[in-house]
Amino acid sequence: MTASIRTLLGASALCATGLAASAETTLTIATVNNGDMIRMQGLAADFTAAHPDIKLDWVVLEENVLRQRVTQDIATKGGQFDVMTIGTYEVPIWAAQDWLEPLDGLSEAYDVEDILPAIRGGLSIDGTLYAAPFYGESSMVMYRKDLMEKAGMEMPEAPTWDDIAAAAEAMTDKDAEIYGICLRGKAGWGENMAFLTAAANSFGARWFDMEWQPQFDGEAWKTTLTTYLDLMNNYGPPGASSNGFNENLALFQSGKCGMWIDATVAASFVTNPDDSSVADQVGFALAPDAGLGKRGNWLWAWTLGIPAGTDAPEEAKTFIEWATSKDYLALVAEKEGWANVPPGTRTSLYENADYTAAAPFAEMTLKSMQAADPTDPAVDPVPYTGVQFVAIPEFQGIGTAVGQQFSAALAGQVTAEQALANAQTLTEREMKRGGYIK
Amino acid sequence: MSRAVKPQRKALNTVLAWGMGLLIFFPILWTVLTSFKTEAEAIADPPIWFNFSWTLENYFTVQERSNYFRHFWNSVVISVGSTLIGLIIAVPAAWAMAFVPGKRTKDVLMWMLSTKMLPPVGVLVPLYLIFRDLGLLDTRIGLVFVLTMINLPIIIWMLYTYFREIPVDILEAARMDGAGLRDEVVHVLLPMAVPGMASTVLLNIILAWNEAFWTLNLTAAKAAPLTAFIASYSSPEGLFYAKLSAASTMAIAPILIMGWFSQKQLVRGLTFGAVK
């Protein structure tokens, strides 16, 4: 073989290698730092083994940083991400702006109809799915069975707010640093306002009437806020105005809360004997109601969506189909056990005897999720979707500002009446600015 | 004649200094301690000080989940790169303002300082769009450019202050001996300003290393430095304090070690000319 032929062959081989390398697609996935998402990152080798032409780059961020980062990127068409982890708040707003690729053409094996209807409805516009749920959650009552027994009480499966107040009073023993109830107090649309908006639904309150007029000057919001403040001031832990999910989780796990009404995802934490000192004493009940036909529980899902304009929509769809499929649930179960499977997305999961046996909170989680309807969240009709939020772009700002007022009321800096009046004024101002009302 | 310090006063000063030092150092100490606890021990109430089951598990988990060395290398390139480029621009600028001041020199200095008063978020979207169009998003060179511009006023101000302490007669003597501008700066000015230069370099590396707003907003996967590495362990829904502490310890360790070994230079530079 002559030198020139060898050179030609070598060059051809190099070209072939180069072409092969260029055929590889890299997906940049922006996701949130929580247990289920990190588990997905750990199991991604299963996906790349089946799709060697797709490489995955992960950007894991804290929830609020992630939200700001992906919103900025998608609004400016920055093109930094191929798959974004977004919540049920963003999906309808972004889909309406044509910022998300529709998730049509999913395979038959994926079984779209298996996704819980309440979740699917919140992620679809005109029947088209714009993001696939990775895990879903509602809120429910987690309570100490031993303290209830000691108080001679029994928690109903579907308690009223009066039941909650009575149980909180009976379990409180401030000398022993046991507080009857722990609720979110930290200001933020996804913090105290997630709880209070969901609770307000059960008291017949709503953010806006059908003409987008704010409703904080109504009697229902007054009842909501005073009930919350009475519960927390009489039976809550000190400094509750700065408590969010993590602070209450730490209090509950260390045995200092009689009850905690919060995300269903907390159930797996408080029943984990490695982290919780009360793991074997936790009971579950539906979020309370006031007899008006709506319960005070929310509905949320972390979902995977594809930003419009990505260079690799098909590969992104392939990844999302893998991560949100029934097969993925089976993979997690095989590697880490059924109790660690991401909950709240598929009907079939709750029909699986292995799962319901491994997760004692599964039944209550499903019932809680079924009790919330994002398209009909309040007692009276509303012009918006969302149970614990209002799916309009202005809500993040308004919700946090109102949350600051309510947090100040909990801290004793303003009265409930002042907080509600301030909330009404600021919401009216922002809605006028947004052109919703004149 | 120096005044004798009473032993009681000296002891009090020592105790106060140690107390202040420990108070400032306490958050770092607590972070390091927490990094060796389990998640349950990390949230224990009352807090556990030293009597816990020391574990390296958090460090293994962090290393397994994230590519620490890629983030570390990005931090090194971004902080050292932006500081060096900043110096190249700042030395002639500070020389001109210190030794050949004009009528508006003070105004220029104040204007440069005023750029630090603008909240960064005010220019985030315009800069993001420019970076998008120039293909600089998620690149180290883009971050080097931004951090150079952000820290340039501080570098110029610090060098200007140090240069002003150097007697102009020495530079004139060099000129009379036939030194050109380049020789004057490189062989006369800079050697005399070494302590000031060193502290400027160190301070700017620390500032760039810790910068979190731009490094989080302009990066994704490829150019993300250690600030993004820490951010990936924070969570409002789930207790990951021990892992977060391990990630924070790994992120601040290099800069702490650098600061420890260079503290003499840093203190000498920062107090340069403070007492005449």
Average pLDDT figure of chain A:
92
Instruction: Give unreliable regions of chain B as ranges.
Output: none
Helix content of chain A: 40-55%
Alpha-beta content class of chain A: alpha/beta
**What is the correct CATH architecture of the largest domain in chain A?**
3-Layer(aba) Sandwich
Give the termini distance of chain A in whole angstroms. 86 Å
CATH superfamily of the domain at 66-232 in chain B: MetI-like
- Main sheet attributes: strand count, strand direction, barrel closure of chain B: none
What is the H-and-E element order of chain A?
A: HEHEHEHHEEEHHEHHHEHEEHHHHHHH
Indicate the radius of gyration of chain B in whole angstroms.
23 Å
**What structural class do helix, strand and pairing data of chain B support?**
mainly alpha
The percentage of residues in β strands of chain B lies in under 5%
The CATH homologous superfamily name of the largest domain in chain A equals Periplasmic binding protein-like II
How many strands of chain A? 10
CATH topology of the largest domain in chain A: D-Maltodextrin-Binding Protein, domain 2
Helix content of chain B: over 70%
